């Protein structure tokens, strides 16, 4: 895995420096600094106790952890949260409980999301009147079919 140095401050010295659980992992786990209870369907913003300085040309993306998502319905409201290279404040995470029945109890130090550091580029937007042709053209929003149907409707549209 290629690496990039990211300057980091621990605003909360009791919180570990983020680390990758396995050598090929894309995300380094982030923890909550506080205990929090998220009722069904509600959200809560928690601190991670970390501030970073990403190099120019990089951004951080805060993704949910799939195990917690599948097990209890925990996700990130604005997934993936975008950490700009110029941001020096505490990385915060806006969590959401997608479960409709049970609250989620989180405790200080629990790993609740993961930070993916990626290269990014700025576009130079050049306005034109003709974008040129492509195979897809302007077909979007399910134009290729195969999307799930609502209850009672056929799974695939038929030609007749
Ligand atoms: O999950 C997140 C998302 C963002 N941020 C911080 C870092 C980021 O650089 C800054 C701004 O994020 P964003 O641009 O997504 O939010 P905004 O609502 O557009 O705020 P702003 O007007 O400050 O850009 O907030 C976090 O700590 N956690
Ligand atoms: Mg913004």
UniProtKB/TrEMBL annotation:
<dbReference type="Pfam" id="PF00692">
    <property type="entry name" value="dUTPase"/>
</dbReference>
<dbReference type="InterPro" id="IPR029054">
    <property type="entry name" value="dUTPase-like"/>
</dbReference>
<feature type="binding site">
    <location>
        <position position="78"/>
    </location>
    <ligand>
        <name>substrate</name>
    </ligand>
</feature>
<keyword id="KW-0546">Nucleotide metabolism</keyword>
<dbReference type="GO" id="GO:0006226">
    <property type="term" value="P:dUMP biosynthetic process"/>
</dbReference>
<dbReference type="GO" id="GO:0004170">
    <property type="term" value="F:dUTP diphosphatase activity"/>
</dbReference>
<dbReference type="InterPro" id="IPR036157">
    <property type="entry name" value="dUTPase-like_sf"/>
</dbReference>
<dbReference type="GO" id="GO:0046081">
    <property type="term" value="P:dUTP catabolic process"/>
</dbReference>
<comment type="pathway">
    <text>Pyrimidine metabolism; dUMP biosynthesis; dUMP from dCTP (dUTP route): step 2/2.</text>
</comment>
<feature type="binding site">
    <location>
        <begin position="65"/>
        <end position="67"/>
    </location>
    <ligand>
        <name>substrate</name>
    </ligand>
</feature>
<keyword id="KW-0479">Metal-binding</keyword>
<keyword id="KW-0378">Hydrolase</keyword>
<feature type="region of interest" description="Disordered">
    <location>
        <begin position="135"/>
        <end position="160"/>
    </location>
</feature>
<feature type="domain" description="dUTPase-like">
    <location>
        <begin position="16"/>
        <end position="145"/>
    </location>
</feature>
<protein>
    <recommendedName>
        <fullName>Deoxyuridine 5'-triphosphate nucleotidohydrolase</fullName>
        <ecNumber>3.6.1.23</ecNumber>
    </recommendedName>
</protein>
<comment type="similarity">
    <text>Belongs to the dUTPase family.</text>
</comment>
<comment type="function">
    <text>This enzyme is involved in nucleotide metabolism: it produces dUMP, the immediate precursor of thymidine nucleotides and it decreases the intracellular concentration of dUTP so that uracil cannot be incorporated into DNA.</text>
</comment>
<keyword id="KW-0460">Magnesium</keyword>
<dbReference type="InterPro" id="IPR033704">
    <property type="entry name" value="dUTPase_trimeric"/>
</dbReference>
<feature type="binding site">
    <location>
        <begin position="82"/>
        <end position="84"/>
    </location>
    <ligand>
        <name>substrate</name>
    </ligand>
</feature>
<dbReference type="InterPro" id="IPR008181">
    <property type="entry name" value="dUTPase"/>
</dbReference>
<dbReference type="GO" id="GO:0000287">
    <property type="term" value="F:magnesium ion binding"/>
</dbReference>
